[in-house]
């Protein structure tokens, strides 16, 4: 979701009084000299001031996506800025109109298609067209889906290929995977989906069956950290070839926990992942080499990095390492903030904690959470100027992505 500083230059003149000649005597005053003028309160202009102002060169207009985003967000109300920080869910079988008020009046800027959409490309396109009709012409929606492959492919039916699991994709060489991802991405684009919440870059350590969120479901590429990075880069590039943005996940990795953060708060503390380890190194490679549009934050907690906060609420991980050390400047999204892993946090504080930590786009998997998360963000932004500034910066990053993908104009 820039402040301009004007530089004022004041020029002062010097008056010389009591000037003497070379012999030390004061020169005689001419008989015809005008009487001495008393000083007045009128300001005196520098003789060069007009020339200086006439020759001043205006600052060039920044028409990069980021520059356009800054101007767009500066023109928004606070409510509009906060709306850009929300990804609201639309479940399979629900009418798009259930989100009309949130999009049109609460300015929600992104939608997650969730559940089993089995009607094919045409069915999904009808829903996405309806959703886009609720958004302003110059600020269209980011429409996302979890289209990983295997057990996690939410969009199916005529026009959508049956995607192999990520482990199956890991058996492809990188060039073949990039070509395949471009084909899958073209199907998403035809359906009106502009962001794929994939690929998974997590590296499973230990027993795959004991790693409920990733290994047990074959959601990773099934390789070591470097091989996973190679394949994730190919997947992101293939999606981009089709005009679809990608979100890598679940930073900094869910491969070393036993519990699935969607459904439990137990077994979700990672006791092995370290900032200098290969698991995070895989994410860093993908970020620097493939430049994904989004990075999705895990809801697990990492003992060796920040033992006090889940990754999605950790300024150490988001602002400190992901942005500061790694240099990532894109959109940071969350795993679903309606998940069981963070159910101990009041609903109206979930978005606040995420944005405070440096996050941008709150992904929400339960429609009943959207209103309290919106209200919590807005209440905090109205009361806290520093938080409002963070929310504004988050909105700028989201809008930058929209300009990059042709959704904003």
Automatic annotation (TrEMBL):
Recorded family membership: Belongs to the glycosyl hydrolase 3 family.
Pfam families in alphabetical order: Glyco_hydro_3
Region (Disordered): 18-71
Key words, A-Z: Hydrolase, Signal
Biased composition regions of type Polar residues, renumbered to the chain: 18-47
Highest taxon, organism lineage: Bacteria
Native organism: Bifidobacterium miconis
Domain Glycoside hydrolase family 3 N-terminal: 78-400
InterPro entries registered for this protein in UniProt: Glyco_hydro_3_N, NagZ_Beta-hexosaminidase
The keyword Zinc belongs to this UniProt entry's keyword annotation: no
Protein name, entry field: Glycoside hydrolase family 3 protein
GO MF annotations in UniProt: hydrolase activity
Listed Basic and acidic residues bias regions: 48-65
Signal peptide: 1-17
